[in-house]
């Protein structure tokens, strides 16, 4: 991926002369839903969370974006210069920022650049379409099962793990409302798929095996 990122940066057209490299700290917002799209971005390093806040107060996770991806390309290419999502840094990030008008001019004048950006956008849309197709058949509790299994695999040292995240953060990462997360946690606790200690979710090796078996059925 490092080679690909370097290669993409080397192909940026001369018209993108006003681009700047910026650093974003973990937890910082790059932009918010509903704001005017003033810039396009390229992720040089790091991971970001794409969120969709709703008027009912709930915020849903749409996807994660990693290095090698463009942001705000959809808004600019479509001509609708209003951000459709909120993007938050999930790690410290290095981004390359382009003025939106300059980015659009480069797309119009450089066919290779247009094709590359369009291909990157199509890859994002393909992954999202594939994920949404899978999610249509998953209940809230199954989505939480997948999340817990993944968390255990990432943090497992052969013993119990503690998920030191609030229900709000978990709801964002899973893409469920807090109410659904709370109901699902309660159900899994009743099924002895997890335990709660000091308000935090704990997963033992036994819990993990049961969760994996549930998903395999």
Automatic annotation (TrEMBL):
CDD domains tied to this protein: CAP_ED
GO annotation, biological process: regulation of DNA-templated transcription
GO-annotated molecular function: DNA binding
Signal sequence, start to end: none
Transmembrane segments: none
Domain Cyclic nucleotide-binding residues, every copy: 24-124
Pfam family, one: cNMP_binding
Gene3D superfamilies, alphabetized: Jelly Rolls, Winged helix-like DNA-binding domain superfamily/Winged helix DNA-binding domain
PROSITE patterns: CNMP_BINDING_3, HTH_CRP_2
Domain HTH crp-type: 138-207
InterPro entries: cNMP-bd_dom (IPR000595), cNMP-bd_dom_sf (IPR018490), HTH_CRP (IPR012318), RmlC-like_jellyroll (IPR014710), WH-like_DNA-bd_sf (IPR036388), WH_DNA-bd_sf (IPR036390)
Keywords tagged on the record: DNA-binding, Transcription, Transcription regulation
Protein name as catalogued: Crp/Fnr family transcriptional regulator
Species this protein is from: Vibrio splendidus
Upper lineage: Bacteria, Pseudomonadati, Pseudomonadota, Gammaproteobacteria, Vibrionales
């Amino acid at each position: 991926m490092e080679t690909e990122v370097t290669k993409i940066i080397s192909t940026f057209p001369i018209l993108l002369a006003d681009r700047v490299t910026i650093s974003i700290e973990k937890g910082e917002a790059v932009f918010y839903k509903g704001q005017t799209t003033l810039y396009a971005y390229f992720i040089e390093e790091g991971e970001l969370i794409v969120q969709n806040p709703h008027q009912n107060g709930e915020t849903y996770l749409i996807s994660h974006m990693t290095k090698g991806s463009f942001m705000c390309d959809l808004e600019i290419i479509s001509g609708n210069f209003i951000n459709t999502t909120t993007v938050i840094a999930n790690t410290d990030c290095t981004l390359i920022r382009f003025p939106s008008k300059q980015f659009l001019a480069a797309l119009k004048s450089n066919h290779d650049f247009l094709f590359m950006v369009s291909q990157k956008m199509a890859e994002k849309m393909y992954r999202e379409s594939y994920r949404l197709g899978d999610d249509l058949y998953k209940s809230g509790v199954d989505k939480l099962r997948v999340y817990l299994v993944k968390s255990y695999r990432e943090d497992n040292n052969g013993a119990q793990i503690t998920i030191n995240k609030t229900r709000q953060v978990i709801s964002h990462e899973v893409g469920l409302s807090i109410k659904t997360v709370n109901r699902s946690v309660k159900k899994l606790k009743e099924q002895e798929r997890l335990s709660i200690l000091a308000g935090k979710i704990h997963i033992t090796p036994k819990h993990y095996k049961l969760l994996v078996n549930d998903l395999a059925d």
